[in-house]
Every structure is written in structure tokens, then in C-alpha cells.
Amino acid sequence: MTSPGAAPVAAVDDAELHRRQDVSQRAFHRAVAETSPGGMVVRDGGGLQVTIVPAAARLALFNCVFYHDRAALLDALAAIRDEYRRAGVPSWIVWVPPWDREGARLLRDAGLSRGGALMVTAAVLAQLHLEPEEELELEPDPTVEMVAACNDHAHRLGSDQSMAGAFAGLGSTDMRVYAARHQGEVACAGLVRYDGDHCYPWGLAAAPAARGSLVAIELMRLILRDAIAAGCTTGSGEVTRAGETIGAYLGKRPIGRYDLWVGRSS
């Protein structure tokens, strides 16, 4: 994206990218919880943030616990379990950051179980490969419902695990929504939020009919080009293996993997 003779792009180290990712991730989940029916956010010392989303009670992905201070988290575990039980949420996720392997061991000892991992990929946007290779057929009126539907299809979520409930009020926030068509149908969609000069894409997913096409890559390129035009300089997100592949194709780099530890409310 940088033209010949342009000023050098300022380097941003992994620690700063992690800090920006943490701010954006927490803000995204707050927005989901605060706009979904019956949702709430509990915050306490030690950087503790607990998002409770009863509208997606069977989808632990939105019922999340974030922390900075391990001791504060461990002290609050019993209270956190009670909060989720009262909300009718059977399971929830503690996001263990890459630098806290000891925290993962202690959560296991406390009865939580490992539920997988997600990589954080990040970049200085001006260093990415964002020139389009194929033309997109954009949906002229994208909605958060389209994002939910594409994610439900992509992740094979049943009706009792749909993301639709979590996103019920998200359209009222300042999230930007993108959707693209493939063979005439909405087949790829995602969200992005801007936090200062940092962008945070979330949930870019392609329905099975679009797999093998470049629609997801091209839609992500558009999202990031728009972010640059809006003044963003960096971006990050937590991604699956498929997301890692797309990120690597664009020039993003992995900067650490979160372990997801699942707590049960009963």
C-alpha cells in the first residue's frame, strides 16, 4: 500500500499491539453485552471484566471473563460462577493471555477445562497487501443479522447457539458492518470497530457456499482499506486457523495465542 518515496512506516512492537488488542476486545464484548437483551457487564479490580449475555446463553463465546491480575481473577471465580448461574448461562470462557501459562494451570486446578485457543494476529496497516485481486459484490444494506447468519453457517451453530440473540441490539452501536454476496446470496460478513487509530475486525465468516472463493480475503481487504482511510494505523483480532491463513496472506503476523478455559455454572 505504501507508494515509492513515501515516509517510512513507524514500527509498533508486539507489546503495544497486544495492548491495543486488549482494549478493543474488551470494548467489543462490552458493546455486545450492553446492547443484548438482559446483558450486563461486571467490572472489578485487577482489570477484571465479566460479560454476561443471556440472549446467547448457550454460546460461551460471548460470556467472557477478561483479566489483568491473576490473583484478582482467582479470588472472584466463585462470585463469577454465581453471576452466570443467576443469569441462566451454563458455561463461560476465561481468556488466558499468552503471557500467563501459570494462570492456565491454576484454572485447571480450580475445575475449569481447556476449550481451545485463538491466535492474535496484528499489523501496521500500511505494511499489508491490500490491493484487490477480484471485484466484490457488496451487499448494499449490510446488517448485524447477516453477520450472525454467516457465522452460524460457518461454525455450524444450531438454533439454540445462534449469534443472533447476542447481536440483537448491536446495530445501534458504532460498529461498522460489511457483507458481500457470492453467486447472488449473502455469503460473507463481518464487523469492525475503530478505537482511536486502531481497528478491530471481528467475526468475518464465509458461508460454506463461498469457500474456495476469494470473497473473505477481498472483504477483509476492503475493511482494512476503509480503516486506513478513516485514520487507523494498526489492526488486530483473535482468529481461528482459517483466519490465521487469511491474515498471513495479507501480511499480518501472529503475536500470541490465547487459551480459552471453560467454566461451568453448575
Task: Provide a concise account of the structure shown.
The protein has helices spanning 14-35, 70-86, 101-109, 144-154, 215-229, 241-250; strands at 40-44, 48-52, 64-66, 91-96, 113-124, 137-138, 176-182, 185-195, 198-206, 234-239, 253-264.
Keywords:
alpha+beta; Aminopeptidase; 2 domains; 11-stranded mixed β-sheet; 32% helix; disordered N terminus
> What structural class should be given to the helix and strand makeup?
alpha+beta
Question: Which residue ranges are poorly predicted, with pLDDT under 50 across at least 5 consecutive positions?
Answer: 1-7
* Level-2 CATH architecture of the largest domain: 3-Layer(aba) Sandwich
Shape summary? globular
* Full CATH superfamily name of the largest domain: Gcn5-related N-acetyltransferase (GNAT)
Total number of distinct structural domains: 2
Q: What is the element string, with H for helices and E for strands? A: HEEEHEHEEHEEEHEHE
Beta strand count: 11
Q: What is the tally of helical segments?
A: 6
How confident overall, as mean pLDDT? 91
Distance between the termini: 52 Å
Please outline the major beta sheet: 11 strands, mixed
CATH class of the largest domain: Alpha Beta
- Walk across the major sheet and give the strand order: 1-2-3-4-11-5-10-9-8-7-6
- Which range does the strand content fall in? 25-35%
**Any idea what the radius of gyration is?**
18 Å
According to CATH, the fold-level topology of the largest domain is Aminopeptidase
Helix content: 25-40%
